[in-house]
Amino acid sequence: MKDYVGAIDQGTTSTRFMVFDQAGRAVAVAQKEHEQIYPKPGWVEHDPQEILRRTEDVIADALGQRGLHASDLAAIGITNQRETTVVWDRKTGKPVAHAIVWQDTRVADDVKRFSATGGQDRFRPETGLPLSTYFSGLKLRWLLENVPGGRAKAAAGELLFGNVDTFLLWNLTGGARGGVHATDVTNASRTQLLNIKTLDWDEKLLAAFEVPRGMLPEVRSSSEIYGEASLAAIAGVPVAGILGDQQAALVGQACFRAGEVKNTYGTGCFLLMNTGERMVPSSFGLLTTLAYKFGNAPAHYALEGSVAIAGALVQWLRDNLGIIAKSPDVEVLARTVNDNGGVYFVPAFSGLFAPYWKETARGVIAGLTGFANKGHLARAVLEASAFQTREVIEAMEKDSQISLESLRVDGGMVVNELLMQFQADILNREVVRPVIQETTALGAAYAAGLAVEFFSGLEELRAKWAVDRRWKPCLAEAERERLYERWKKAVTLSFDWVES
Q1: What pLDDT does 88 receive?
Q2: Is the pLDDT of residue 350 over 90?
Q3: Burial of residue 327 (number of CB atoms within 10 Å: 0-12, 13-18, 19+)
Q4: pLDDT digits (tens, 9 = 90+) for 6-24
Q5: How confident is the model at residue 412 (pLDDT cuts 50, 70, 90)?
Q6: What is the pLDDT, as a whole number, of residue 357?
Q7: What is the DSSP letter of 37?
Q8: Does an H or E element contain 470, and which?
Q9: Do 56 and 37 touch, CB atoms closer than 8 A?
């Protein structure tokens, strides 16, 4: 039996390849960032070819660290930034334009136009999603409308569409020479083109968005063999798992039972609750989405609260203002003050996602006085993720009628102990960090390993989950509610900054 499984973790700012052993421990990891392209205010793009090169590089780098070869890998899984939209030429493999990233707001006018008939929730019964700049469908429509000859080429069957998982799978399994054009249910559910009841592309939605069915990938489960890799470093290895990044973290956290919840603090902040085989419609601003589907087993659904800006706000503090030299410095700076000094930062750079879904909101810093300094700003940056998480959890408890006792956390920001303590304080809940914190890549590895029987089943995966650290709330109730009330007031100041 082969000793390892690999996972491609293609995120918003970087790509990683991780190798895991059967105990779920990472034995090798390589990571490279890629360029963030901002052609206009509100526009965010990636170069898909650069992402593909970074993927090839990190696979070679990680395997080289341990002297591993393709023959050592039982399978490879893919997890990816969701909603980021790629269109490429079927014959040449070349993208027709840069990828439009999930944070991009260029289709805001289309959201308004589509919402004028039937409202923002007109497609919620089929998709579980409100109309928003967030999802892939309107991005794909924009590309077909704005790339010269795009619509005619798509109608003629010359173009292919996919989120980044699909683009990578197609290229890794042969590309123009027979690459597999497929996606899994979790990524498909983020396009706003999938009927989440039938788990297939919906003809009514395709007609509304004017998308030819022939350019869409085949929808498959999250754990099965899609094809064999043709890239030299991993030639012959089955590509056997695909999960959107937040669903991958849910799997990596072993949240396989209905009611189990995780929160990932990455570029954005994403809270998911497994609702089992039952779809739970949201009345409080959350998304109903696919959690995973393992092979022939029934699909599991999730409620999701999506926050657009979390770790990205720390990057902004670093790159745009130069207040810190590297991201971990934000905690050091925030600890130079005892509290936020009355400063609140609402990072509505791309509008507000859950639970508000306000495309016209923009970022605000509120409560500034002559007393405020960069330490207070750093603290406000961290606290923003915790406040936004509380808003989402309150909505999730109302929708699910389940009260959360504790919160499982993962993602790059969970090493920030100041943030984790404040999260416990503002929630008045215990916050729990697992031993293996790279749960996104781990979830993709789990999905791939299940498909080739590297792992025996969900009970084995559940047994691997272990606690690293717990944070218990220690803030007085009156102070907790005072802080939260001021946060809610700051949020209202961000509303309707851009005129409808």
Answers
A1: 97
A2: no
A3: middle
A4: 999 999 989 999 999 999 9
A5: confident
A6: 85
A7: B
A8: strand 467-471
A9: no
Give the alpha-carbon dihedral of 320, 440, 394, 282, to 10 degrees: 110
Measured between alpha carbons, how far is 137 from 185 in angstroms, rounded to an integer? 15
What stretch of H or E contains 86? strand 85-89
Mean pLDDT, rounded, of the chain:
94
Instruction: Return d(Cα 443, Cα 21) in angstroms, integer.
Output: 13
| 340 vs 268: CA distance, rounded Å | 21
* Amino acid identity for residue 175 in this structure: G
DSSP code at position 300 = E
β strands within 323-375, DSSP E: 344-346, 364-366
Rounded average pLDDT over 269-276:
92
Nearest to 481 by CA among 430, 432, 420, 425: 425
Any alpha helices (H) in 178-244, and if so which ranges? 185-188, 203-209
Phi, psi of 70, rounded to the nearest 5 degrees:
-55, -35
Question: Could you give the C-alpha distances from 401 to 50, 396, 398, in angstroms and in order?
Answer: 44, 8, 5
| Per-residue model confidence as pLDDT tens digits over 109-121 | 999 999 998 898 9
Q: How confident is the model at residue 498 (pLDDT cuts 50, 70, 90)?
A: confident
Mean pLDDT confidence for 120-133: 92
7, β-bridge pairs: 18, 77
Closest CA to 228 of 220, 216, 237, 219: 237
Q: Letter for the amino acid at 326? A: K
- Is residue 167 within 8 Å of residue 88, measured between CB atoms? yes
Q: Which two tokens stand for residue 305?
A: 């609260």
Residue type, 213: R
Q: Report yes or no: 465 and 409 within 8 Å, Cβ to Cβ.
A: no
* pLDDT at site 7: 98
1 has a pLDDT exceeding 80: no
- CA distances to 31, 62, 75, 229, 387 from 17, in Å: 7, 6, 13, 15, 32
Chain centre distance of CA 354: 14
- CA-only gyration radius of the chain, Å: 22
pLDDT digits (tens, 9 = 90+) for 136-156: 999 999 999 999 999 999 999
Determine the residue type at 414: V
Token pair for 329: 């410095």
- Tokens representing 111? 């959201």
CB 257 within 8 A of CB 274: yes
In this structure, are residues 304 and 246 in contact, taking their beta carbons and an 8 Å threshold? yes
Q: How far apart are CA 398 and CA 162, in angstroms?
A: 34
Residue owning tokens 């916050």: 431
Q: How far is 381 from 345, CA to CA, in rounded Å?
A: 6
Given a cut of 70, whether residue 500 has pLDDT beyond it is: no
